[in-house]
């Protein structure tokens, strides 16, 4: 067995004393059911406890605001899957970048709404930070030169308090004398926002006309700082040369002691040459090691290549953080990103977060960018599929979000279908409408077994509530002949018991559904017989009745009833059954009675009597009818 | 598809309805109600889309719907109607029919009346699937095959039609003040006349052999033409839109392929009946438009049109030659019928829609509400 990466957390169960009793448990799809057993820790057994506890790891899916995250990201996910495969990857990169930005804006929108709930907000902040870095490094894959610019953007986005402070300072009566004035200026410089820094510096320059020359000098230096412009024809080497010239100029000013009289200005100058000790003095303004890293790169190595990043990242982290403090999970994840170790990033994120949402979507996007080597896991599926399956399975446990999970399973080629088949049958079906939606999902994916089983559940429910019409419509949907037969039997039983049909509106209007099962066909035809009889179309009725028996549509058990129904037709004054037809009726009667010739001792005497009377009546009527029919047919009109 | 905003609301929406505006005023509707389903705690909510005051051309920034108030609802909201300006009737999956009152001053909702076991089986509750009102009368139908008639402000049941149907009744609509039309899960339309005693429908219509597969297709929604009381549109499990003339026999006047799965709701535009809207499980919302006298056939005019195969079986019975003929012929090659998709693709099921004036609101299983304030009518 592999070693665990982190110490597992313990969750205490309320009201349970582990010293006294043993705990039993069983795994569910997203949670564990835990119960107290009767076994004592010291051996022997004692009385049980009636409680069963449900322990759930992922509370997030039940937060109403995070639900918006899941829904919106589902929409983006589905859109991503449908990007055409045949486009060359060069054209797809901007699409992927914009999809990554979409995901991030969804996270940000959630954060804005969640301002009150501190815990989740900080997690989302971290998540967005990591995603943004992954977008810069992996998806956008900025080359040397633009890399630093993108990283600068990244840092600026996540350090928004500078603007707030600046607003405060500038809004005050005398900005240059504000307590936080120099903090603002230096923060701007640290973030590479030279224009804003210059604008704020002007306020101070106005206050100190004597030092005007100094301020002008600094302003000049700030203005002339070369910034790499990827659009221009300037190559990286040209930019490097320019930048080195500029740096030399700044160094020159430092050596000249031009700013010796103003400590702040001197510090700014030292920052501009990338003096690490000075940078570290402003730890508070930088607040994070990665800000320190980016600032360091900006002023010392603006042409840094992506492959060199990790070296600077590690050293920055060591320089910035106390050697005593333990690196936080976020720090190691960012470090792994700077080292371009995608798998490590994903692994660390999986451990740190309690929900598969982030790793699932990020891995999927990276997979689409073809950045993940096919890293086959032990049981055959790849990393992307594994994470998506985990995420979707978690969604399926939610009473409402299960519908989103279906699309995720669809896009897991190896195991998605199997997972879906197993999970979809367990969705609770309270109303017909929900059942219809679930069935539609199954039908669209040709999961006929699941369709049948769901329809059968609904049909049985309907049958239990005596809703025969509903039950029939469910059997038709499932094309379940066996159940249709069952329903027809119920109808016929009702008829035998009550003498009339219930639910005539259903039987009269069966339409082509009648052909689903033999019994159902019989039911329809039998009802038609009654209708014909009611309309006094006796010869048609008679023909139908006979065909029901001779074509073997009617079940044997029903033949007696049919023959009894034939009685009034036989007793009519007018001859309805022809001689041939009467012969056939007699034949049917013989077939029926031949099986009953042996009297059974346990049948009560009255039944026997009724049966024999009926048969005798029938025989008499048939004989009479035969006689009249022969006479009628034999008569020749003169 | 301009002018459509998505608002994610963390609950699957089963019904959306505009609050009625008085017919005399030319105001656009600004308040709508939604009901949720498939949640552990379902609720009905009232939303406002704010002032429609000064609108400029191409107004990009349209106000998001704002939640005014919300109230817990037992069971899924299977149908929702405004009884009047202040009261909403809902049909629940627990079989209960509830009247909520919206207090405008305090922006709160409260339960004004409740019939708890309006629909039930002998042992269980049965979901109440449809409600329609003609203030103060309320008619409800359910999976138990019963039709119930209530009056607001009166405790008891005014009338029950027991065993109205042996299968589940899915929707109901008023044809006249005393006549209703129901559709059920074996594909039948039944007319009921309240003036007559007894439990028998006055007429039964069904799809005969005219449907695609020859099967009886369950019907899910029905709506009556606003001006012609005998024209109704229905939609069912196979996504086909059928227009019926209830005076005429057993066949629909026209059948049009609309959606690829169940059609959940169909609505004629209340003031402009040449327009029809339908929404479906396949995530699309179609706007059907009868345009008269165009030289170019509609399917060449651009926009996202679906192809329509219509099998118009019976020619319309003479008489009124107005726009309704376009529905009755349903013949796209004459350039009479044009459909447009109103929502972006790849959506989960659109469960409900409502249209009033120039505003359209719909709710989806993706837990989102879409509002369009500039429907081209």
Reading the helices and strands of chain B in chain order gives EEEEEEEEEEEEEEEEEEEEEEEEHEEEE
Counted beta strands of chain B:
28
User: Would you identify the regions of chain B where 5 or more consecutive residues have pLDDT less than 50?
Assistant: 52-61, 209-213, 293-324, 330-335
Name the largest protein-protein interface in this structure: A-B, 42 and 53 residues
The assembly state of the depicted protein chains is heterodimer
What portion of residues of chain A is helical? Answer: 55-70%
Strand-residue fraction of chain A?
under 5%
Number of beta-strand segments of chain A: 3
Major beta sheet summary of chain B: 4 strands, antiparallel
Give the topology, please.
The complex is a heterodimer of chains A (638) and B (377).
Chain A: E1 21-27, E2 31-40, E3 52-56, H1 64-81, H2 89-113, H3 118-139, H4 146-157, H5 161-171, H6 181-190, H7 194-207, H8 212-224, H9 236-255, H10 263-272, H11 276-281, H12 283-286, H13 289-300, H14 309-320, H15 329-338, H16 342-352, H17 357-368, H18 383-396, H19 402-410, H20 416-424, H21 432-444, H22 448-464, H23 468-478, H24 481-498, H25 504-508, H26 518-534, H27 538-550, H28 556-570, H29 579-594, H30 605-634
Antiparallel strand pairs in A: 1-2, 2-3
Helix pairs in contact in A: 1-2, 1-17, 2-3, 3-4, 3-15, 4-13, 5-6, 6-7, 6-10, 7-8, 9-10, 13-14, 14-15, 15-16, 16-17, 17-18, 18-19, 19-20, 21-22, 22-23, 23-24, 24-26, 26-27, 27-28, 27-29, 28-29, 28-30, 29-30
Chain B: E1 4-8, E2 12-18, E3 31-37, E4 42-48, E5 66-73, E6 77-82, E7 87-92, E8 97-103, E9 108-115, E10 128-134, E11 137-142, E12 147-151, E13 157-161, E14 169-176, E15 179-184, E16 188-193, E17 203-206, E18 219-224, E19 231-236, E20 240-245, E21 254-257, E22 263-268, E23 275-280, E24 285-290, H1 324-329, E25 337-341, E26 350-356, E27 359-364, E28 368-372
Antiparallel strand pairs in B: 1-28, 2-3, 3-4, 4-5, 6-7, 7-8, 8-9, 10-11, 11-12, 12-13, 14-15, 15-16, 16-17, 18-19, 19-20, 20-21, 22-23, 23-24, 24-25, 26-27, 27-28
